[in-house]
């Protein structure tokens, strides 16, 4: 669904998605990390922002892994479920098929399991804090909710654009705008979870002194801040989402074409 090429066996599509997804992940970090650092500092830590490249190594190494896994799982299951049940359209969704949502949820879950430790290390590095191996799954529930919301929205939106406006993906600017728009919309939907996730992973002090802040403490604190609190860091986060997901999609679609031209599909 994330490419225009003729599909082969579902395992082959998964393997191709694994390979081309690495390029998506590395490109995403390479062009978007400075904005991501600013966003995280705004969400989880007060004070002067310095070193926009801080914390780049964990996501640079890991982004290719969890994003390639995400696309591998989605493409494999989307292809495997190309049957009567999988093609069943969900009522009142303008033609969204069951397999799109099912594959998106599975892909988001697989990504979250790999992404949470990497995100934890990245946030700790961006906010200048030490961390221990036993802490790497702190905030996993929020990570899963945030990633599940983003990725399901992303794949459903890209699918809708392909079905209703297929010509968009015939040009690089169209590919850029479709992916950037779908991903950014997904992040806007779950942004409060993104803020909470970063605060939990950074250990941002909230609530009564002398004890670790609970999730309820953090939710109440965000609520007291109104929309400004719920959507803290939205500007740099939006810029990061646009440039990273836009350029990454263009790179991945080109890679999919190369795979076909090399006779591997």
From TrEMBL:
Its main location: mitochondrion. Solcar repeats lie at residues 170-258. One of its GO terms (molecular function) is L-ornithine transmembrane transporter activity. GO terms for cellular component: mitochondrial membrane. It is a multi-pass membrane protein. InterPro entries: MCP_dom_sf (IPR023395), MCP_transmembrane (IPR018108), Mitochondrial_Carrier (IPR050567). Keywords: Membrane, Mitochondrion, Repeat, Transmembrane, Transmembrane helix, Transport. It is found in: Mitochondrion membrane. Pfam families: Mito_carr. The keyword Glycosyltransferase does not apply. GO terms for biological process: mitochondrial L-ornithine transmembrane transport. Belongs to the mitochondrial carrier (TC 2.A.29) family. This is Mitochondrial carrier protein. The lineage of its organism: Eukaryota, Sar, Stramenopiles, Ochrophyta, Eustigmatophyceae.
């Amino acid at each position: 669904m994330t490419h225009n090429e003729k599909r082969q066996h579902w395992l082959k599509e998964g393997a191709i998605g694994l390979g081309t997804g690495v390029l998506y992940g590395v490109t995403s970090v390479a062009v978007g990390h400075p904005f991501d650092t600013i966003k995280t500092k705004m969400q989880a830590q007060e004070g002067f922002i310095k070193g926009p490249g801080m914390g780049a190594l964990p996501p640079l190494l890991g982004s290719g892994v969890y994003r390639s896994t995400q696309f591998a799982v989605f493409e494999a299951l989307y292809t495997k479920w190309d049957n009567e049940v999988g093609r069943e359209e969900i009522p009142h969704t303008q033609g969204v098929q069951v397999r799109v949502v099912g594959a998106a949820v599975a892909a988001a879950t697989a990504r979250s399991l790999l992404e949470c430790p990497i995100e934890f290390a990245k946030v700790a590095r961006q906010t200048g804090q030490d961390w221990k191996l036993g802490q790497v799954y702190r905030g996993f529930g929020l990570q899963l909710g945030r990633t599940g919301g983003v990725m399901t929205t992303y794949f459903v939106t890209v699918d809708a654009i392909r079905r209703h406006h297929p010509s968009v993906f015939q040009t690089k600017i169209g590919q850029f705008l479709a992916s950037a728009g779908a991903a950014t919309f997904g992040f806007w939907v779950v942004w409060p979870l993104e803020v909470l996730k970063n605060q939990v992973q950074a250990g941002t002090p909230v609530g009564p002194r002398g004890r670790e802040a609970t999730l309820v403490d953090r939710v109440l604190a965000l609520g007291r801040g109104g929309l400004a609190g719920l959507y803290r860091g939205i500007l740099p986060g939006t810029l990061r989402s646009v440039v990273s997901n836009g350029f990454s999609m263009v790179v991945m679609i080109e890679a999919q074409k190369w795979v076909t031209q090399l006779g591997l599909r």
